[in-house]
Amino acid sequence: MQIFSNWLKKKKLTSPVDVSSLVTDMHSHLIPGIDDGVPDVDTAIALIKELAGLGYRKVITTPHIMVDLYKNTPEIIRKGEKQVKEAIEAERINIEFEASAEYQLDEGFLNHFKNGQLMTFGGKYLLLELSYFNAPPNLFEMLFDLQVAGYKVILAHPERYAYWHRDFSKLEDLKNRNVFFQLNMISLSGFYSLPIKKISERLIDGGMVDFIGSDLHSHQYLNLIEKALYEPYLEKLINSGKLKNHLL
Ligand SMILES: [Fe+2]
Question: Which of 66, 112, 216, 245 could be cross-linked to 22 through a Cys-Cys bond (beta carbons 3.0 to 4.6 Å apart)?
């Protein structure tokens, strides 16, 4: 444990990375009460103010859509989006706000796809997350079908799927299939685990990261983001010129 904490402490930047060049954060849970994100509008507003303070000018929030846990629909999400937008205006926060979704590739996903109900952003970008326990057996077929239908698939936090940590070639395979990768900023702080931090750094070294997101759920995440701002790999990623956040 001591070795681990020493390792995390070493090689930090002396001043925080300026993330304002990202312009847009495209992964968060800021629609009140519909997933494991913010419970109410006041918390959403407090967190949005913090994002504005970090230099973000646009927030695309992405509530979970999961067949078992969070049966959200575009209507439910749009209703919450309207609520938050009104509060942003009332508070005069200078930030653009829109809602999309983070879809879990589960048994329900195919129905949403078939019904043409998928929520996207920035054109036809689709944020997709996978189970943390095992990779879906039909992953490559599903991705192919989505791409043929014109969706630009972004895989949420590829660094967090432990079943690929010893099989990095699977991640390379996905990149070769034109899947966009979105890294969680807090993965770099070592919050989830040391292997997740290391895979994140390997993805950055390989030039494989297209987007970076806060995955903001609560104030706790914000503290972790503030910690991640001192990570040399965050600086390396932002300076890589590979990120597309500002294009959204
Ligand atoms: Fe998320």
Answer: 245
